[in-house]
Write a structure and sequence with these properties.
Length: about 170
């Protein structure tokens, strides 16, 4: 698939809204459902400097405008060498390499442009495709966090994973 990866912009609000209202995005991310496009426009208009947010956009004009979104949220103080990664891919475009491309761009950003040495994430224990992707990109499992997040009325466990760049 021919896509462009670029910085998230405020005018991506409609596409981001559509992305996070997809059933898989609701199920597999920690985002709460039913956030309005206005909510996303406000959020995208105020991305803090310690957050890098990118989108995957299709070069074709038909279909959704935003195929995926990923971000690195850099910690402060004694953990400023660490960042938390979040990612979502539009339901219709899973398993087409978009998640890999988004993650690789964020890893390259961390490795080549910042002092970020540790990238952390959590993933629901039953999201085997995502876990396989993260392992492919050198993330290691660090443990299971019990009853970490509510999903469809049930407290779910997540795998804590991290990628640590060697010195």
């Amino acid at each position: 698939m021919d896509i462009i990866i670029r910085a998230t912009e405020p005018n991506d609000a409609a596409g981001i809204h559509q992305l996070y209202e997809q059933p898989k995005a609701r199920r597999e991310t920690l985002k709460l459902p039913f956030k309005s496009e206005h909510f996303w426009a406000n959020r995208l208009d105020r991305i803090p400097p310690h957050v890098i947010s990118i989108v995957a956009i299709s070069k074709q004009s038909s279909g959704p405008t935003v195929l995926g979104n990923a971000s690195l949220n850099r910690f402060e103080g004694r953990r400023e060498h660490c960042a938390f990664l979040g990612i979502a891919v539009h339901d219709e475009y899973h398993r087409q390499g978009i998640g890999t491309q988004l993650m690789q761009h964020l890893i390259d950003y961390a490795d080549l442009w910042t002092q970020i040495r540790r990238i952390e994430l959590t993933v629901f224990t039953d999201n085997l495709n995502a876990i396989a992707l993260y392992k492919k990109l050198a993330f290691k499992e660090e443990g299971i966090l019990k009853h970490y997040a509510m999903r469809n009325g049930e407290l779910m466990d997540v795998v804590a994973m991290a990628r640590v760049k060697a010195r």
